[in-house]
Every structure is written in C-alpha cells, then in structure tokens.
Design goal:
Blueprint: E1 2-6, H1 11-22, E2 26-31, H2 39-45, H3 47-50, E3 55-59, H4 65-75, E4 79-82, H5 89-94, H6 96-117, E5 121-127, H7 151-170, E6 173-179, E7 182-183, H8 192-201, E8 206-209, E9 215-216, E10 219-220, H9 221-233, E11 238-243, E12 249-250, H10 251-262, E13 268-271, H11 286-292, H12 300-314
The chain binds nicotinamide-adenine-dinucleotide.
C-alpha cells in the first residue's frame, strides 16, 4: 500500500514508519519538524527509514493546502495515517490557538485533500485525554467524552468529530484511535518518563505534580504501532477505538519502576497538580480486541527497562535531553 504518514518524524511516527516499511508498504512522510522539541531529534528518528527507497520524506506543514494537494496528486495514496499534531496537554493551556489550528484545521486540510483525490481511508491519532476526568473506569468508547479539560484534548475531540462528518458525507473509512500515554524508544523528551529517567541518572530531582496518586495507563510504543497497523488492515466505516495498555499505574508506582530500571533512587521535588491534567486514565480495550484483534503485549516493567536501555545507548549522541 502507498501510505501518507503525517508526523512521521515524531516519536510514534518514526517507530511506525519503520514497521510499515518492514511490512512492505511505500511510506510518504509529511512532517514540518516543528520546534515543540529539538528538530534534530526528529531528524535522527528518521535516519534509518531514509535509507530505504520505499520511504520518501517531505518537510512541510499539514496546513499547507497546496503542498498537501500536490502530494496527493503525485503519489496516489491508498491510505492516510494522520499523526501530525501539536502534542502535550500543559503547553496547550498556554497557546490554545496554535493547538486548534494545527490539530483541527490541519486535519481538515487532509480530509479535504482526500475528498478531492478520492482517497477513502484514514487512521487518525486521537488521545485518551478526550475523556477528561470521566469518573467511570475503565474508559469506554461510548462514554460521552464531551468535557475535555485542556485545549489539546478539545482539539483532538474536534478532529474526531470532523472525521465522522467526512465519513458520513463521503463514505470515508476512518478509525480514530485514542492512544493512552505512549512510551518507548524515541519518546518525546518533555514527557515524564524521559524527564524522570534523565534526572535520576544525573542525580537531579524529578518534578512530581500532585501527591503521586494520579494514575496513567501507559502503553508501550510497539503495542501502539501494532494497533495502528491492525486498524489499517481492518478499516471499515467510522470507529473510535481505545489503544491502551489497560493496566494503569500510579505516578508514585511509575517512579519506583524507573528507579529499579535505572538502579538509582529519585530525589523528588513535589509540586501542585497542573491545570488541564486528569486524575487517571484507564482504557477498556474490549472493542479494539473484538474489531481488530488488538492485545497489548508489553508490561510496564519490561517496557521501562527497554526504554532505559535504549536511553543509555543513545546518551552519547547528545540527542536526549540533558
Ligand atoms: P511528536 O510530537 O513526537 O510527533 C508529532 C509530529 O508531528 C512531530 O514530528 C511534528 O514535527 C509533526 N508536526 C507537528 N505539527 C505539524 C504540522 N503542522 N505539519 C506537519 N507535521 C507537524 O508526538 P507523538 O507523541 O509521536 O504523537 C503522535 C500523535 O499521537 C499526535 O497526534 C498525538 O496527539 C497523538 N498521541 C500521542 C500520545 C503520546 O503519549 N505520545 C498519546 C495520545 C495521542
């Protein structure tokens, strides 16, 4: 299949790109290497893929209608995997307009290009944050998800709704995948697991927001990649699917797992809960199991150990935060 992969130089996108190539797909990556974090890290993420003739890289913006249309005309895509976004809950509180523009208008630009060129299939990267502080756990796809707590969450939900509209109007097959906190090699440097690992290794305090009781359903990146590819292989109609580990751990528990993997004790700088943060996330994955055969395979202890091993191996390149 010839696939447009947006955001393919990022954390999830670069892991996914390699797996798509391994499965024999042609991958065209569109990524503007934005400065949310060091673009050199993104550039290094795609180095392996760039040497594969089945991989094309275009540095550009999903909101650039002319560029997007040209790519659709040039390549004859059979499907779009749309990961490009401004990610991150807390920074979205500071700059809601930017998050709205990239995540909503950018998605609309792609949907319109699909309509113009007759491409019918999209897998869209949504987020567990759309559930807000939903009291009922585990979160199920038919929960209302109409009380997002951050501009990021609202933008992800808005894009899901646009995807539904294009399914309704033009018969597109679109799966919106709600990823639950993803971690693993190439992880974004500002995410908690990267920060904690780096600081513990360097004897610096880690910033823990709240009393450590907030819980997250961490999902190892290969499980996310498998969920995306299984969706691509079973795309029919419009569906929202949770892709999570379905095994939440408290923040205090996560710190202990990282301490064990690193072999050092953390110094803790405790700070108040941050605006926009939710108390817990927890995926029901029954629907994804039924529709696409999704089952997470990597438990948090193994995943953190793999991440720390990757991190240590990478440390000398200067492409991890210091
Ligand atoms: P990332 O920031 O590493 O990757 C996003 C990529 O999109 C980056 O390479 C960035 O340069 C690119 N991008 C940003 N704006 C763009 C634009 N206007 N045009 C073209 N490219 C642009 O983030 P990630 O963690 O890999 O997340 C990938 C997707 O998964 C995002 O849509 C994110 O919202 C979603 N998601 C991630 C997580 C997680 O825990 N990492 C959880 C839920 C959902």
């Amino acid at each position: 299949m010839t696939i447009l992969l947006t955001g393919g130089a990022g954390f999830i996108g670069s892991n996914l790109g390699q797996q798509l190539l391994a499965e024999g797909h042609q991958v065209v990556c569109l990524d503007n290497l934005d400065t949310y974090y060091d673009p050199d890290i993104k550039w290094s993420n795609v180095q392996t893929s760039l040497s594969n003739p089945a991989y094309q890289f275009h540095q550009g913006d999903i909101r650039d209608t002319e560029l997007v249309n040209t790519l659709f005309q040039t390549y004859g895509f059979e499907a779009v995997i749309h990961l490009a976004a401004r990610a991150g809950v807390r920074p979205s509180v500071q700059d809601p307009a930017l998050y709205y523009d990239v995540n909503v208008n950018g998605t609309l630009t792609l949907l319109q290009a699909m309509q113009r060129s007759g491409v019918q299939k999209m897998v869209y990267a949504s987020s567990s944050s759309v559930y807000g502080d939903s009291p009922r756990v585990p979160f199920a796809e038919n929960d209302t998800a109409d009380k997002p707590l951050s501009p990021y969450a609202a933008s992800k939900r808005a894009a899901e709704l646009l995807c539904h509209t294009f399914h309704h109007l033009y018969g597109f097959d679109i799966f919106c995948l709600r990823f639950f906190t993803v971690y693993g090699p190439h992880q974004r440097p500002e995410m908690a697991i990267s920060q904690f690992t780096d600081n513990i290794l360097n004897g610096k305090p880690i910033t823990v927001f709240g009393d450590g009781s907030t819980a997250r359903d961490y999902t190892y990146v290969t499980d996310i990649v498998n969920g995306i590819i299984q969706s691509l292989n079973n795309l029919q109609g419009y569906e929202v699917l949770n892709i999570g580990g379905s095994d939440p751990i408290s923040l205090a528990g996560l710190v202990q797992v990282i301490e064990r993997a690193v072999g050092q004790t953390a110094l803790i700088d405790r700070q108040p809960m941050q605006p926009g943060d939710v108390q817990q996330t927890y995926a029901s994955i029954e629907k994804a199991a039924q529709l696409i055969g999704y089952q997470p395979a990597v438990r948090i202890e193994d995943g953190i150990q793999r991440f720390v091993d990757w991190y240590l191996a990478k440390q000398n390149t200067g492409l991890v935060p210091h």
